Amino acid sequence: MGSLSDYPIMIKVIETLKQFEVTFEVKVISAHRTPHEMLTFAQSAQHNYSCIIAAAGGAAHLPGMLAAATILPVIGVPTNITPLHGLDALLSIVQMPKGVPVATVAIDNGINAALLAIRILAIYQSELKQKLIEPKPLKEFFEMIVPFLYRFPAINPEGFRQNLNLILKNQ
User: How far is residue 52's CA from residue 42's CA, in Å, rounded to a whole number?
Assistant: First the structure.
């Protein structure tokens, strides 16, 4: 994370990784406040890690700076911490120059960042691949997407939840 303010988003990453029993480490490293520590981490990360998930808001330099200094896949999570509602972070992360790839998920979508990292790891870990293949209960899927529906005023999340309950009763 670029700062502790990213923790509410990164807790979803932590929960998802735990659900799949993936080992991980949480660090607060800033591209602006601790640039030397960030570069040292990025340059040595390939010895201890297989993938990096980096959340950042505003100028959101952390994912791109990490990607520029490591060969590992980097997944950027833009966070909504400014009056631009995370769009500035999204554009900062997604507009990396050629040669500096950063996978980017939707604003505040730590769950997808974790799932993407798990899919990357599952390429070489058959037990992890099997966990991804196992069918998820319909209820679990809908519970995961309902919080995102609140972002779209045109969709009535409560009505959606009521319909979901009807569907689940008839399952």
Answer: 9
